[in-house]
Structure prediction request, 215 residues.
Amino acid sequence: MTEVASKGAASAAPGEPVLAPGRRSRITPEREAELYEAVLDLLREVGYDALTMDAVAARTRSSKATLYRQWGGKAELVAKAVRHNKPGGSADGVDTGSLRGDLHALTLRSDDCEMEQNSALMRGLAMAVHGNPDLLKAFKAHLIEPELAEFRRVLQRAIDRGEVRADNPAIDYVMHMMIGGFAARSLIDAQPPTQAFLLSYIDAVVLPALGVTTS
Prediction:
């Protein structure tokens, strides 16, 4: 790692700060977004296993040392790129006054085109996660746990409003239901998930399981 960083520091791309090994370079939010988009493009093109830090460095005109200093490795970079691609930011900004409204608002943050792209991307990454402990760890830290925390906040507001009973056993499985509906659309129906499908799925499956009426 030190050897890689030393070599990369000497060959940093123009405009990138050259730092001593072990120090993180400063990357602007705009540059970070460009890097994440390039990573996602490469993932769609070649998949996780064939993606390399060399390819990311070449695609983004970065030094490999900068990438390692900033993200540590491929798994961390990929997980953060996927997290960054999540539309709409945190669920903290969504509070419609009802659980149905909140879940619908969260769903509508992605249009049908984004859902189709994300569905294909996540299918490939799901296979990679099972054979890569580093990727699984990074996904748990940057995607799964934050998503669970967001759903817990949304559900806690519903509990506080009296919409959902605190002892409803389905509370612990809301994220499972949401991911299941998203993934099963392609597997069972051979169609990409869409806003219309997921909104109807929420009304027909998720909310009734939580004891929330939709009529």
